[in-house]
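Box 3.1 A note on notation
Throughout this textbook, protein chains are presented in two layers. The first layer is the amino acid sequence; the second is a token string describing backbone geometry. Keep the layers aligned when reading.
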Amino acid sequence: MGTHLKALASRTNPKTVALFPLSGTVLLPGSDLPLNIFEPRYLNMIDDALKGERLIGMVQELEGENSTKTDGLYKIGGLSKVGGLGRIIQFAEMDDGRYMVVLRGLKRFHLGADINVTTPYRQANINYEGFETDIDIHEDNTTPEALSATKGERGALTMAMKSYAKTLGVQLDWDNLKQIPLDRLVDQAAMISPFGPADKQSLLEAKTHEDRRRLLIGLMHLYSDTPDGDNETIQ
């Protein structure tokens, strides 16, 4: 499955994409994002996507940004300048007309200028410069987790997750979490953790998994009620 997904992500390079703006939500490569679609314009977007390559561009709305502005080369108009390209891998229509879909993250993109369309949903130009290695996350991980990451790297993340989970009052299956490769665990935790939109965007735009892991650990300690301890360091 990993080889198939990597090949799919590698050859899927649309120059334009339908946009689903959603504050507080990011889509990382190799991760799945469940969505509850109910607005008519986005129901239309899903219908159109299912007729084609089933691609959606997830991007965060910028808080308080309503007018078009230019940020470097990118005309972003109230949207974050980096988003995630996703492919619909599951779809179900509810009795009340809602769609329940699951997006699989393929790779990140830079958001360019809007394009003139007659659809009720927004579409824009995109490019993937700087995100060429995103497809590598789709590879099957055949290396035992114990050999693929140092004990300190895993331990620092686990400690931060336990502190943050305690603050949120949630129970986690630590035995199952141990089986998830470190990079995937970081990405999944980054997507589901209820951080603010700006923090979510920073996690999405992190250049490497190491950068994302360090940022995630710092945010978890920052958002936790319990201190991380004077003798703890982020590995």
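Residues 151-168 form the longest helix (18 residues). The chain has two domains: 2-138, 145-223.
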